[in-house]
Amino acid sequence: MIKLISTDMDGTLLNDNEQLPDDFFFILDELTKRDIKFAVASGRSYCTLYRDFNQRTHDIIYIADNGTCIVENNKTKHSDVLRNEDVNRIVETCANIEGTHIILCGKKGAHILEIPWFVEEIDKYYNSRITEKSLLNVEDEIYKIGIYDQKGALTNSFPILNPIFSKTLNIVCSGPYWVDIMNKGASKGHALSQIQKDYGISPEETMAFGDFYNDVEMLQQARYSFVMQNAMDDIKKFGNFIAKSNNECGVTTAIKELVLKNKISNINLPNYTKIY
Question: How many CA atoms lie within 13 A of 52 on its CB side?
Fold first, then answer.
């Protein structure tokens, strides 16, 4: 029996136009009636996620900033703060990587430099924005560093940053143009395990959906792990099942068929592929 569902946002729950499935709030109503916990896990900040779901915020657990912050009922249950010296080292390193632009994601909001086109780009993901003259020694508790890479994260900034910082920090590509940096051990998966512990829920009672590298640990924390059909082939090996694409409402389709209709024990349905 499923007791907890966790889903990524971009490329997973949201379609390519960044819209929720039409039946999302109906699904959420049904899960709430059955006392099934629902979590959204995203690289987005809590403030942005709250904006997206504010009409039903008390029915959702927020795993924000790639797992460095867990919020439930408007209360922060867990946060993981980076050391100031680590933040400064990353800022200084990225100053020498062409095409990179930094967001310091903190308790007060998202700290950025004032670059007009960049402000417009990050407003999609961070609605609590603070412009700074310098990103060194910013006065805030920084949970995560987001790096927007115009040249492509997988081939430009990640290969430079990973060898330098991966021994002490968690470096992950969260999208084709994004690298996220958190404390070692911080991830969506670690946050999901905290929620499981809080409510006495096992991985066998958990369903998770994702589509990119920053979802891997979360997928590994759930027995019923679904990678979206639209994900890169390299990601699909980390899930136990394939869901329909984000543009086909793969998340809500799977929940309706397998949870609401109680067919989880008959998971070898034609629409899903077993890959293990």
Answer: 27
The β-bridge partners of 129 are 110
Predicted confidence at residue 126, as pLDDT, reads: 76
pLDDT of residue 119: 72
Low-confidence ranges of the chain (pLDDT < 50): 275-276
| pLDDT at residue number 127 | 72
Of 183, 198, 226, which residue constitutes the final position of a domain? Answer: 183
Instruction: Examine the fold and report which residue of 136, 152, 183 is the final residue of a domain before the chain moves on.
Output: 183
C-alpha closest to that of 226 among 173, 272, 172: 272
**In the chain, alpha helices (H):** 24-33, 46-53, 84-94, 116-122, 158-165, 188-199, 216-220, 233-236, 250-254
Q: What is the DSSP string of 47-97?
A: HHHHHHHGGGGGG-EEEEGGGTEEEETTEEEEE-PPPHHHHHHHHHHHTTS
Segment 190-238, tens digit of pLDDT: 999 999 999 999 999 999 999 999 999 999 999 999 999 999 999 999 9
Residues 19 and 104 in one domain: no
SS3 at position 213: helix
Selection from 107, 239, 229, 103 nearest residue 177 by Cα = 103
Dihedral sign for Cα atoms in the order 256, 215, 231, 272: negative
Predicted local distance difference test score (pLDDT) of residue 276? 37
Domain tally for the chain? 2
Q: Phi/psi at 34 (nearest 5 deg)? A: -90, 5
Q: How far is CA 142 from CA 61, 146, 172, 200, 254, in A?
A: 21, 11, 17, 30, 36
